[in-house]
Amino acid sequence: MDDAARKTSLISASRRVVIGGAAASAALIAIGARGAVRLPAGLFTLGVASGEPSPDGIVLWTRLAPRPLEADGGMPPQSVPVRWEVAEDDRFASIVRSGTGLADANWAHSVHVEVTGLRPGRWYHYRFIAAGETSAVGRTRTAPASGAPCDRLRAAFGSCQKYEVGFYAAYRQMVADDPDLIVFLGDYIYENEPFPAEAVRTHGQPEAKDLPGYRIRYATYKLDPLLQAAHHAVPWLTTWDDHEVANDYADALDENNSDPAAFLLRRAAAYRAYYEHLPLRASARPIGPSARLYRTVDWGSLAQFQIVDDRQYRGPRACQPPGLVAAHKKYASLVAACPDLLDPSRTMLGKEQESWLMDKLGSSKAQWNLLTQQTIMHQDARIPSGHPERGPLIPADTWSGYPRARDAILRRWVEAGTSNPIALGGDIHAFAADDFRDPDKPQGPAIGTEFVGGSITSLFHDPTFKQQSAREGIAFAENEVHGYGLLTLTPKSGECVFRGVDDARREDSGVRDLVRFPIEAGRPGINIEHA
Ligand code: FE
Ligand code: CA
Hints:
The chain has 531 residues and is α+β, with helices and mostly antiparallel strands. 18% of the residues lie in helices and 27% in strands.
């Protein structure tokens, strides 16, 4: 159906009376000229979500999936109109915007509505209605007016929520922390096959490799009540890391150096399922194996999130032993330095995204500039190889494998005078905090600050991590506790608190402060207050 036909069909559908299910097990819903389809009951199993706040709008999401663990979600092959409502109150006495969106059969009956015409800096409530059923009510908010002063931003940030190895107690506390936003930095799902060794719950699904596999994996995660509650409570900003597709992939290369053409088919399926399950703008909708996820989100004059994608465009890994790619062998994740490492053409973000980012870092007028990225950016990551003749080893999958690309960002902060740069990261399944220094003045003062916010559940059992981090001069490192970061910023100061889950294997776990980092505008770098 072309757009005009779809609009006509939607309008006629919205004018018809939607027939509620007399039999309680199914409902008829009008779908325009093609008549009515019968829908099973229980359409809103995956909850609702919102994201991408702007001063006058928000993206609302849901997906109709009466049988969410089946490939088609239990839905018929037709698209279905879905009414949406935004109100000032949670009882919908004062509805300020409403309309009809489409649960698009081509996109797993997901609904993405870009609401506009809202007031800046306000909280709202929203819900969806289809076939006589009403969704859960979500709470969301708009960003402050463009360029306007703003007293405070509070953002919780997390990553790496492997379903099988833990429960989402972190989200219960995140909601209680009452942030304006939840920022998710990647590994929303894990594509892997079951992992019974340390599982506290299992999904019993094979490795996700195709569209049905990824859809079922998202549905599995999104059925979790604590994850749903976190989406229902506040808008999210999300970017992806590797496990939304496959472990440690780099552009068209997976960790096994499989045939790139085959891998890109897999990536296309994974990107599609990602879009289908998150509150993203249509501008992020994938076309085949490509999707533009990088973007900025402004919070008045207080902060700008520069949200990047460091997977889709990155160059091949550095310093790989010869022959691995041709032989489709597993890539070497720890490598000895080689001349290739410092090749200026080695890219992490790809040329287009990098020049976009450099432009934003120069043009942002925000007091705080939040580089919202996937992994650790620490400048000197070197791991003792245990073989003095080989020297230290470098993790090929983080920014350490792309040092020129990292340094270009740090240099840009200095040269453009980017105001108060802070990098938020995830991926390493550990907390870390550290200063950035000017690559041209390695002994100089701090020029920015890095906070890596732990993992919601994913494990990292390296008994040497803390010692190694101390040896490398990382100011704070913790890999035995799961949790998230809570960043609060005001025009002059702020803080980042690392919040640790007592036991991520328990759904009712408590959460406590691990460490607090006071932040002062104009004084980059780490200050520590241990809890
Ligand atoms: Fe992870
Ligand atoms: Ca990762």
